[in-house]
Each structure stands twice: as C-alpha cells, then as structure tokens.
Amino acid sequence: SGIDLSGNSPEAVMALPGLNPFSTAAAGAFLLSLWNLSWVMRSFKESLPEEERGKAHRAGRPISPLKLFRGFDIPGVTRTNMVYFLFLVAFAGMEFTLTFLAKDRLDYTSHDMMWIFIFVGLIIALVQGGVVRRMAPKLGEKKVTLCGLILLVPGLLITGTAQTGGMFYLGLAFLAVGSALATPCLTALASLYTPSDRQGEVLGTFRSLGALSRAVGPIIACAAYWRLGSEYPYYGAAALV
C-alpha cells in the first residue's frame, strides 16, 4: 500500500508527508526568494570602489549581535537605529500574535486570515506607492516618520482590544498606514544622515537591527500573549512605540 499519486490530483499531492494547505504559499515564497537572489547576484555590482570604502568595511563585521547597538559618530544615525529597532520589535510582535488574536477572540478561519493580510498589504502598497513619495518631499522624512509612529499607537490599542470585526479592521487600518509611513522614511533618514563612504556600514547595521528585532519581538509578544492575556502584547507594543 502507499499514497496514490495517479493523475497528480491536488488531493494526492497534499497527501504527501509534511505537506499541508500552507505548503504552496511557502514554496511560492521560496521560489520568489531564489529568483530574487539569482537576479541580484547577476545584475547588481558593488557601487562603491574599493579605494573609497570606509575603514569599517576593511576592519570586518562584529560577530556579537550586541555590537549592533554601538553608537555611531555620525549625528542622527544612532537615534534612527534605535527608533527603527524598537518600532520593529513592537510591529513584529503584533504581526506574530495577530492570527492568534483573530482566532481566539473573533473565531477567524484560515480563509478569514487571508483577507486580513490582503487588506493590510493593499493599504501598505497604496500608501508607500502613492502617499509617502508625495509627503516626504513636502514635510521631510522625520515628520512623516513621526506621523507613522503616532498612528501605530491607536492601531495597536484598537486591535488589541477589539471585540468585533469592524473594530479589528479599523485597528489594522491604523497599523497598516502607520507602518507604511514609518518604515521607508526611517530607512531614508539612516541613508541621508550617512556620508557616502560609510553607507554600507551604517545601512548594514540598520538592516541587521531590523532582522534582530524580528527575532526578539515575536518571542516577547508570544510570551506576554500566553502568560498575561491577548491584549497585553498590544499594550506593551503601544508603550514601546
């Protein structure tokens, strides 16, 4: 006996060990990432000549994640890095517990979860593609970032305490707009503050802090969610922002 794959029907394929309805999305993301990596390796060259690279590039990279928090001697950079780290700790924690909250409090199914991420994704795409590029030249990246961070606070509080689908989606709208404003403008600030010969060092640290925050945020948020209650990660994230 064994698994019958005759006809290669979706049911037969999904009967393979380890596969589930989410495997298709994971496989698609893997293939897109692989294509993106191949494209970058083939099409992008180092833009900064060796002789113009900063001393930090030749000195090597720190191994300890804690060294990412070292201060830079460039005005504005350290502050921007810390704001970005704390913002993403809060946002990553929210992202990771959002489906738990939707299931536990609103009894959402996996199909309902799909609409959550479509809703958030569309708002982020529209705001980043149409609003940020018009606001930033007029107001400046710092003010747009502040607007985004301010919007995150009611978004976190409304989402974390929502008892109905309408309030839940209202909170998500605040979160989507806030993150869409803050994320690109924080990146722009880090770049604008940095001289050309240290762009790689500073932006590399900036991105590394973002990756670290996406590891730390879910751990803290999930611990708070399951030990204290579903609303507490959102209270904590709002206070952090």
From TrEMBL:
The keyword Plastid is annotated on this UniProt entry: no
An annotated Gene Ontology molecular function: transmembrane transporter activity
Topological relation to the membrane, as annotated: Multi-pass membrane protein
One Pfam family recorded for the sequence: MFS_1
This protein's GO CC annotations: brush border membrane
Subcellular location: Membrane
Regions crossing the membrane: 12-35, 82-102, 114-132, 144-162, 168-193, 205-226
Residues of the Major facilitator superfamily (MFS) profile domain: 76-241
UniProtKB keywords: Membrane, Transmembrane, Transmembrane helix, Transport
Main location: membrane
UniProt xrefs under PANTHER family: MAJOR FACILITATOR SUPERFAMILY DOMAIN-CONTAINING PROTEIN 10 (PTHR23504:SF31)
Listed name of the protein: Major facilitator superfamily (MFS) profile domain-containing protein
Organism field: marine metagenome
Taxonomic lineage from the root: unclassified sequences, metagenomes, ecological metagenomes
